[in-house]
Amino acid sequence: MNKLAISLLLLIGIATVWFYQEMQRTNNHPVVIAFGDSLTEGFGDIHGEGYIDGLEKELNSQEGHQPYRIWNYGIVGQESSGVLKQLNDTRIVSKLGEAEHFIVFIGTNDLLHNNGGDFAPLNEKKIKEGKDQYVENLKKILSILQNENIQAKIAVLGLYNPYPDDKEIEKEIDKWNHTTQQLIKNNERITYVPTNDLFKNKYKSKYFSDSLHLNEKGYKIISRRIMERYDFGV
Length: 234
Hints:
alpha/beta, 10 helices
């Protein structure tokens, strides 16, 4: 065997060992799996994945801990029924056991869809019907996550009112958030993270990319709130 062949074999061997070690190192990183709609997907953040990017940076800035990986399963336009469909997908279900934490941020599209696609005019009867179905879906979502992963903890984010000066919308958002809190209040594995107070008394143009979605600055506020209210163990 000539020297060139020996050198190539050595290089291949070194690369193989490095790749294996890197995979082992990466596979040991704690995993967070996030489910949601466009607010989890990061719509409106032209530089990244919204609060997911901010949260990953915050988590990985902590010294003395393995870097976190966040798998973002947010989908633009998704409702709670869409998350249930994801959790019936064997490709996703097979990954649930790898997570140390789950984030669920869903419900805005459920509310909008049941009110005809926007916030005006409000139809309280339709919104209530939508809330009842949302709660049933959320129960199933949380049940699946807890059954498929008996150790991971879950952060459930409350909804925010994109029109905080509108008292009628505020009333409906409060109802949905209160119902969510009641649903999870006795479950030690689930933490409720409120968001509805975050954008009150702020200039909307500074934190929103459009009438509903946040921009990079707005998503950073969500990231910080999650870090403040939810224990990742860092």
